Each structure stands twice: as C-alpha cells, then as structure tokens.
Amino acid sequence: MDSLFAAIDLGSNAVKLKIIQMNAAQMETLEDLSVQIPLGDEVFLSNTIKLETVKEAIETLNYFKKIMESYGVVNYKAVATSALREAENSKNIVEIIRMKTGLEVEVVEDTIEKYLTYKSIRDKVPNYKDVRKGALIVEVNSGSCDISIYYQNKLIKNDEIKLGIKGLKYMLMDFENRTVNYPHVLKEFVETRTSHIWPNIEAKKLNHFLAIGGDAKQIKDRLFNGKDHIPMKAFKKICKDALNNDFELRQHVEREGGNWYEFLATLIVYDVFSDLVDSDDIWVPNVSLRDGILAEQVEHAYGLTRYKSFNNDVYHLAYEISKRYKSEEAHFKNMEVLAISIFKALKADYVFHARDEMLLRLAAILHEIGKFTRMRDYLITSYEKISNLDIFGVKREESLLIAHICRLISSSEQKVYESNIPGITSEDQLRIFKLASILSIADALDKSKKQRIEIVDAEITDSRLIIAIKRTDPCVLEEWSFEYTIDNFANTFGIIPELKDVDE
Question: What are the average pLDDT values for consecutive 10-residue runs of the chain, which has 504 residues?
Fold first, then answer.
C-alpha cells in the first residue's frame, strides 16, 4: 500500500503544500511549504482574480507538482477555499489550472472546509479528548469568522458570521480616516455583530479557548515566539496595546512583514471571544485544512477508526438543529436506528454510494423540522428548510438530496415517485428513491412515536425483504402505515418488504 500522501490548499493569502508518509500508523511530515499569493484581496476588491495572479499560482502549483513527483506521490488532493468560492471567474481558473498543471482542483464549500480542519485536531492536539469536553473554537479567515463549541465530547454549535479579515481590514482603514480611536470602533462593531451568541457560549462554562487559522498563527509567531499556548494575561496585554494603537507594536508587526490592519482585525475578534471562556491561556494549535485532507486520505486508505468522534460531529450538529426545531428526539433517533438496520441488509445485494449511509442518517434526524412552522404538509416545509441549511460536513448538493429524501417519505399517504426531479441527475435521483423508500419504512415502524417496534434482523430472501421485528405493544398504527410504503419500495428495489414477528 502506498504510504505517501499530499494535500494542496489554494487559500486566500497563500498556496500551500504538505506531503506526509505513514510510518507505523503515524504521519511523518516530509514537506510543508507555503507561497504567499494574495488571491483573497483581489476577490474582495473586484470579485475576480486577475490573470497575472492566476499565472503566479500556476507557477507555484507546477513547482509543487515537481516536488510531489520527486517523492513519487500518487495520492494527492488539491482544494481551493474562500477566494475561489467567491470569485466570479472561479470555474475558468480551475480549468486553466487543470490545463496548465494537470492538477485537479476542487473548490470546497465552507461546510466541508470546517469539517476537515476540525478533523485535523485529532492528530495535531495532544489532549484533544479534554478539548472536546468543553472548548470554544474561533477561526478568523478572509471571508468570515467561524464559532464552534465542543461540549461533553460533542460538537454542539457551529456558526458562521460574516466577519472576514479582508472586510474588517478595509473597515479599519475607513475608521482611521474618521477617528484616532478606530480600533475601539471596530471592536464595538464586532461586539454588536456577535453579542446574540454570547449567552449560549457563557452558559456552557467552557475552559478551553482555541484560536485557529493562518491569521492566528501569525499572531503567535510574531509576538509569542511560535508558542502554541499563550498566557491569557499576556494576550490581553497585547490586545490592550493594539486597541490603544501602540506605535511600537505596529512597527514590530510591520517589520515582521505583517499587515497592521489585518493583524489588528484578527486580534480584536479573538479579544472579544476570549472574554467568554474561563481559560488561563489561548491555544493556537497547528491545525489546518491540509492536515484534515491528509487525515481523510489516510483514514480511507488504511481503514482507520481513530477519527470516529470527529466523523460523528456531523450527526451531533444535526441533532442540535432538529432539537432547535422541536422535533421529537426519541422518534428521530429511533428512525435513524431502524433505517440503518434496513440499509445494512440491502447493502449485501444492492449498490449504494459511499456517502449514502450518512445522507440516510441525516434525513432521519432532520425529516420533521418543518413541523415547527407548518404542521400541514410538513414534509414539504422540511424539504424547503433543509434545502437552505448549511450542514456541517455536507456539500450543498448533498443537502438538496437529503431534502428530497425527506420530501418523499410515504408512510401515511400514497406517493408515486416522479419520473424526473428537476435539477437532479439520473444517478442521484435513483439514490433519492432508494433512501426515501428505506426511510419511509423506518418512519412507518415508529408511526406512533412510542418505539413499539425493534428490528431484530433483516435479510433478502428470493423476492422479499424479510424484516424480523419484536413488538412491545399492539402496533395497528404501524402496520397500517407500513402498507403505504410497500409499493414504492418494491418499485425501487424490485423486492417486497415484509414484517415477520420473532419470539422473545
């Protein structure tokens, strides 16, 4: 098995390469390179990236490609983040890069970028288990600020606020033309934009504060000798000096090659959020998107299970969304279990997409969120809400698939699956029908929401799917509901589902 892996990140300020080798289940870094290219500034100012800058990026990527070839790297993944996400000529740039370098670049959505970055915590933070018990994570990047809460080993909150460094930098420059107290004006602005989430953070009494992202790393490198742990008192001293526009501090930052306004904007955001936790220090760990990409590659190549907790963060956040919409937790968690039991039985004979199990679980968790605002036709409302959700670790196109799966649940009314779903490929349409058929049965088997039925086993026999069940009470409602699911399931899978009672 190939033990070499590489990750390329086209970020807002730099293009980066990391190459690792797996040795005895440990990652050994062979190369970790970064070339400064200001993609983000151009996008912020003009919504496009100029050809000269693209050429510069291509030169760097060709250089990275030669390095990968010198090591014999075959397994690589190249991604682009916010700059190319927001650039109007993004698709053209990706195609030019492919033609000029041969590298396939994926423009990843923010939900995927965050998921991969957090996954790297597993390998880069020695006491990650303690961090997951209670921590506030703040990442300031070029286009936004991400706020996350780990609590009791679960990721329970992940919000994006439009407080990007590029925008804040130009706000500071504007404020400076109006008042000498311009840093305090920006802090007031940040406070007004974030105060609505403060009570939720303070209520958890978190005792870890993690500042992640390239801008946080520059703070620790330029002012704290690259130390991962920065004493809170020392950090607050720097914040006070920066807010007072300390001339010596500004000179130091600029001598080190930093942009004073970007530095100040970053510091102010971290200053505001650091007041909300009870921590003696600020931790700036060396986590990155590149490390998350590599973790994902290694996990799949070696079948590793050590990222299980971080993979499950996708579901924990979905639970929080569903509970926020007042869905019945016992019901959607039971549906999740029932659906996966059927899914695993079908996997023995039917082909599913690698991410179908995840989509099915998320659909089970989120299917009733529409009831919060509309009881009538709530599945249609759930479809509309899910279509517009940013689901952590899930692509936009996958959110739409989840929405359609929920819309087509047929456990209390006859629904005929349409021959064509606008905007959905034939392959994805079949995925929707398969997963909706499974979820319909799961919903039927808990129609009373009293968890009366347990699936003991499920297996395919000739032309039937035999679902062996145990009942705790009479299940007339569940049996009636189950009958509505039979036709769509049979038309989709070519077999008839059948319930079979088993003895205690």
Answer: 90 93 89 91 86 94 97 96 91 96 95 94 93 95 90 93 89 95 96 95 95 88 91 95 92 90 94 95 93 95 93 96 94 97 96 97 97 82 94 95 95 76 93 97 96 96 94 94 94 96 78
In this prediction, residue 144 carries a pLDDT of 85
- Residue-wise DSSP of 274-313: HTTS--SEEE-----HHHHHHHHHHHHHHT--TTHHHHTH
How far from 202 is each of 161, 198, 279, 280, 325, CA to CA, in Å?
18, 6, 12, 16, 22
In whole angstroms, give the CA distance from residue 69 to residue 27: 19
Task: Output the pLDDT for position 411.
Answer: 75
For residue 135, report the phi and psi dihedrals to the nearest 5 degrees.
Answer: -150, 145
Structure tokens at 156: 């329970």
Cβ–Cβ under 8 Å, residues 125 and 102: no
The tokens for 237 are 């001293």
Q: H or E segment at 500?
A: strand 496-501
Q: How many CB atoms lie within 10 A of CB 457?
A: 12
- The DSSP 8-state label assigned to residue 418 in this structure reads P
Q: Which of 61, 84, 109 is the last residue of a domain?
A: 109
Name which of 162, 7, 144 is nearest 82 in CA terms. Answer: 144
Closest CA to 394 of 372, 423, 368, 365: 365
Round to whole Å and give the CA distance between 387 and 438: 20
Q: Supply the pLDDT for residue 1.
A: 55
CATH number of the domain within which 396 lies: 1.10.3210.10
Q: Are residues 276 and 335 in the same domain?
A: no
**Tokens, residue 15:** 């293009």
Backbone angles phi, psi at 3, to 5 degrees: -105, 5
Q: How far apart are CA 343 and CA 437, in angstroms?
A: 10
For residue 23, what are the domain limits? 4-109
**Does residue 325 sit in the same domain as residue 456?**
yes
Q: What is the rounded distance in angstroms from the CA atom of residue 119 to the CA atom of residue 395?
A: 16
CA gap 149, 157 in Å, rounded? 5
Domain's final residue, options 109, 142, 157: 109
- Per-residue model confidence (pLDDT) at position 94: 95
> If DSSP codes are grouped into helix, strand and coil, which group holds residue 12?
coil
Answer for the pair 394, 362: CB distance below 8 angstroms, yes or no: yes
* The two structure tokens encoding residue 280: 């003696």
Torsion from C-alpha of 326, 331, 334, 338, nearest 10 degrees: -120
Residue 84 contacts residue 39 (beta carbons within 8 Å) = yes
Residues 27 and 23: their CA atoms lie apart, in Å, by 6
DSSP 256: T
Give the integer Cα–Cα distance in Å for 473 and 452.
6
The total of other beta-carbon atoms located within 10 Å of residue 87's CB is 23
Tell me what percent of the chain is helix, strand and coil, each rounded to the nearest 5. Answer: 55, 20, 30
